[in-house]
Amino acid sequence: MEHPSLKIGIVGLGRLGRRHAENLARYTPGAQLVAACSPIAAECEWARDTLQIGTIHADYAALLADSQVEAVWLVTPTSLHAAQIIAALHAGKHVFCEKPLSLDLDECHEVAAVAARYPHLKVMIGFVRRFDASYRTAHGRIKNGEIGKPFMVRSQTCDKNDPDGFFVQFAPTSGGIFLDCSVHDIDLARWMLGNPIAKRVYASGTIAMHPGLAACQDVDNGVAICEFDGGQLAVFYASRTMAHGHDTSTEVMGTAGSLAIGRNPRADRVEIADASGVRNACTPSFYERFEDAFHHEAQAFVQAVLTDTPLALSLDDALEATRIGIALRTSLQTGQPVMLGAA
Amino acid sequence: MEHPSLKIGIVGLGRLGRRHAENLARYTPGAQLVAACSPIAAECEWARDTLQIGTIHADYAALLADSQVEAVWLVTPTSLHAAQIIAALHAGKHVFCEKPLSLDLDECHEVAAVAARYPHLKVMIGFVRRFDASYRTAHGRIKNGEIGKPFMVRSQTCDKNDPDGFFVQFAPTSGGIFLDCSVHDIDLARWMLGNPIAKRVYASGTIAMHPGLAACQDVDNGVAICEFDGGQLAVFYASRTMAHGHDTSTEVMGTAGSLAIGRNPRADRVEIADASGVRNACTPSFYERFEDAFHHEAQAFVQAVLTDTPLALSLDDALEATRIGIALRTSLQTGQPVMLGAA
Amino acid sequence: MEHPSLKIGIVGLGRLGRRHAENLARYTPGAQLVAACSPIAAECEWARDTLQIGTIHADYAALLADSQVEAVWLVTPTSLHAAQIIAALHAGKHVFCEKPLSLDLDECHEVAAVAARYPHLKVMIGFVRRFDASYRTAHGRIKNGEIGKPFMVRSQTCDKNDPDGFFVQFAPTSGGIFLDCSVHDIDLARWMLGNPIAKRVYASGTIAMHPGLAACQDVDNGVAICEFDGGQLAVFYASRTMAHGHDTSTEVMGTAGSLAIGRNPRADRVEIADASGVRNACTPSFYERFEDAFHHEAQAFVQAVLTDTPLALSLDDALEATRIGIALRTSLQTGQPVMLGAA
Amino acid sequence: MEHPSLKIGIVGLGRLGRRHAENLARYTPGAQLVAACSPIAAECEWARDTLQIGTIHADYAALLADSQVEAVWLVTPTSLHAAQIIAALHAGKHVFCEKPLSLDLDECHEVAAVAARYPHLKVMIGFVRRFDASYRTAHGRIKNGEIGKPFMVRSQTCDKNDPDGFFVQFAPTSGGIFLDCSVHDIDLARWMLGNPIAKRVYASGTIAMHPGLAACQDVDNGVAICEFDGGQLAVFYASRTMAHGHDTSTEVMGTAGSLAIGRNPRADRVEIADASGVRNACTPSFYERFEDAFHHEAQAFVQAVLTDTPLALSLDDALEATRIGIALRTSLQTGQPVMLGAA
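^ Those are the sequences you sent over. The predicted structure of the assembly is below.
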């Protein structure tokens, strides 16, 4: 008796794409990385030589036509996500797609509508933090009633400052700080609070270090308040300018206690005591922080497909995160609160 | 040669008033607590018997007429503050007054105007946290440039839940959660950011545990965003419903680093490891957290008077804190951002 | 071009053995788990059905005779280690063996002597903590001079109390608390201090909870001081009676600073604030604490064999750990310091 | 009705003496610092001018003859302690004396014998850590049974390195590192464990930075194991060479949990996040760490005299600490364990 496995074709082999590929090739039991697709020759070469992937496609259509491929793994620019997911569904493939689903709400709805026509195919957007061990423990404790009824979330995604401001050139297409960074926090807040729907949001921000962002009405430090329909609250903070590293943390307040995840972004279990005091190093980027979560995410998707069990998060979750993110951007740009009707 | 001393009359001997009185009587070099004033017989008795204060006045006018008294120390209901400060100034007394200055902006301006006519008299509102050793260290590090240019503050005042909801009955006169609790955070934020003036605020909140607050349009958990005229940001959180204790903390983000004060509200230096994990106890109320700060505050005021040196904080600071606090309440009640013109 | 791989036969499929097997089967690139060996039918069945290992041997001789097997992976009782390693070497196999090498110093020397005759074969004893990310970082910082010259180590291995005292029945064959638990700390201390040789040791201990240990002159809490030939010091603590979990920690003192690894044995990045204070859960057992280290250990061994590069730790290290562990036991039992000549 | 007060004469106004004097003059309700005694003119002048102490004596006999003085406060060289305490008792004065009682066991016994003849006079040796809020909380929790039965203590006194090695010149008269530093830890260990008597000790040490100590057989880093008559254990560490500050910490292991006091020697509640990671400053010296404890110690002594209630610690405690400290020094110098008979 052979163990079942899922034959996967990865699309996009940039920095994060390569990590997904290695992860699927080496650390995801049940996954078989049978094909890769990239328009860039060097990336194809890497896939062939380093990962020994058997089939390399230069374009996406060819990959979708590849009958051995059962699932596509999209690590492509956000602007391509919706169309690529829809095409994959029409081609009969399961889909994993990096976050965010799309920066355009109509596209989100369209993807959801198409996916609804293929109920036997799984589609998951990579909200990787849901698969982090600490976030999972926290969620379990909340479901278990350990903090009473949760009524508020504070969550932040703060990146280490890039002194070159490299990201500024991507600002026009990133969707702005809230859609780029805070979608994770939005998704976590809803997950921790029992999936409420947003009612009203207000956002503000400042440019602390990167004046180039002003041209596209973006900021390098943004804050926001989100009110949900059940009276729950969320406060978000996103920053591009941290000095100490990547600092993602989330707090959940409940009527009988509160939980904090990642309050000190420790790189490891080492503490150093010297003339500067007692200190710990910090996780330099999201990848060091969430490396294990990427593994668990891939394992969860592959297992859900192989055993045909429901996914942990739905397209509706991804859609609601985008909807809220767009409203935050609007509020930032108008200075007014944005009302959100039923999703 | 006798050391100089300041003869003080304390007004109000409720719970916090008694602590101020003991503090002045025992731990404030240079202070001489010569008189006390309270309308409540038991309080007067305590002042006479326990603290051995020589002169007890049943009413405030008598205390002001007491020529030995050089300074009054007001720990009275907020609604009395403005009138009592003004009367004290007219009587030629220095004034220390517990926060907040007033819930009414016109009163604040009136106090400031009267005080301006008595430049030789000192008036200080008790924003006690400015005298806490950790906040002072943090402020010093910021002035020293250790985190670069500060551009954002997050600050919270979270009280331990009182299961009896005793505070609910004071809600109609407290000014609401922002004027009662967040004034401290507002003052700290301005202090850390170089005393900017608020430009626009937005507030929201929820009632997590005390439905009785709805009657006076108050909440037991409030959040707010404040934008300052120099582009700086502040995010506030105030809560009445913490399970673990009094949890006051403040973070200051700068272009070269950030500072956090009081992130874990440790009661002491003890950690306990047992079947529930590794834990520390928390400060039960603001008094345990700021006991030393109350000492330093009294010492600072007395020294400033004795040496005729400037106070660390001005009436303008107290006025701006009230102005912002009122705007936060308005925003909470209207659901709209509130614009604040020049102070 | 096929990637090279190492064909491994695992021996012993008890609790820890199964974890090694899963690890080799799923998370060790380059490893091929081709055979397993256990005298217990249920274990063989698990290997066949769950891990789908192709060849199952009922006895060790058969596994050694299996020509496809290039390396054996011993997770067997300590009393068998020396003979099994020697037999594997004679059969031309590389050897990974769980710690400790042996409780008998002569056996350690014999293994070292035989291994020296097969320089092309790798033999590694599983001092897993050397492969933990935090210990590696700490070691790198020390080598980098970040704490000056290291002169002292404090290290502890403290297990969560088993209220059933199940381990008491193994006490007669475990070698006692120092050989069973402290060998890890001994090895870490030597590694951090630049591999010095022990000169004199003194040990003491107490029975806090498990009186049954008295019969075999063992304790459930043991402490020891070890002096090394270069003047360095180590202090060890081993316990079987922790209430909060598995608590392994190590401090290294240097002339310009000190390093602590694992001071709070956090289970994850979650902190809980409730009526009991602020707390974190703890790692329940060594496995949760060192799961990643087991992965890295296996990867390191497999890579060293595949690339024929030197191992991170030698049989001499394993021998010195046993030599010191035996001396600690002797000291505990005699109440006298034990002098150790050149190794 | 006048509050009772205790008229105190302080003896010795060196660095620590001045702090005791200020403390008594300003922060010790019930204390009246009426006289001071020092052979050094500048110190006398400081007492007169800064503290406005009325009577200044150039020698100790004169102070003892001063009838207004009810209690003497000795902050003098250790070699004078015993004779000064005895003389004070003969003169009918209560005595507070800085630790240690004496470096000579016979002297300790003699003091105890004389004190026994004056049961109406209080004598207390300043083991200040017993008056620290965190140590008191810890002791209360243990008495309360929160960690079950305590069976082991680890305690350390580690001073910040003085690069000038100033202390080396005092090494010949300090009694060595254990009598100078570890007496505190010895006293704390006995207090936490229920005042057991030592049975056997073993000590070792190393010179990491100050070779000058070799001349008087002392070390700059010392470790020791102490076995008590009830089977309890203590492990001590004393260091003169910390890079990060003064680091005093103590752990108490019990059958149901453990307590740690001062694990991270935080200077305050501030945490800094910058390019070096997340860090806190450390207490630079014992005085910053134990400033409040010095206040509480003085208050406790004064209250015990004024109310004629028993002291928290006895001369027998001070004697046992010296007895154990001497045994540790002997063990360090001989390399052998030292047996201690009944105290």
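Residues 132 and 149 of chain B are 22 Å apart (CA to CA). The interface with chain C takes residues 242-245, 247, 264-267, 271-282 of chain B (CB under 8 Å).

Shout if you want it in another format.
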